[in-house]
Design a protein that fits this description.
single chain; 89 residues; alpha+beta; 4-stranded antiparallel sheet
């Protein structure tokens, strides 16, 4: 167990970003798709995000509670596409 943690520390020192390469790849993919969604303010920290593709998915994002109705953000801790579609305030 100690050897495994030491190996992970060595691997982390090679990272070029704040996050690991797998997470970076996921965030890049989200960044590419963010233009396909529109956010509408529903409150101070609450937004409704609508997809502009054929299915037109709708999700509620609460930036105050760090939640989204798609539940991806709560499960992984990584911002989902709906959260990324909300403009920076």
């Amino acid at each position: 167990m100690i050897v495994r943690n030491a190996n992970r520390m060595v691997a982390c020192e090679k990272w070029k970003d704040v996050v690991g390469p797998r997470i970076k790849k996921m965030l890049d993919k989200v960044g590419q798709r963010v233009t396909q969604y529109r956010a509408h303010r529903g409150g101070e920290f609450v937004f409704q995000v609508t997809g502009i593709s054929e299915n037109g998915s709708q999700h509620a994002v609460d930036l105050g509670l760090y939640t989204c109705t798609c539940k991806r953000r709560q499960l992984s801790g990584i911002p989902c596409i709906n959260t990324a579609a909300v403009p920076k305030l």
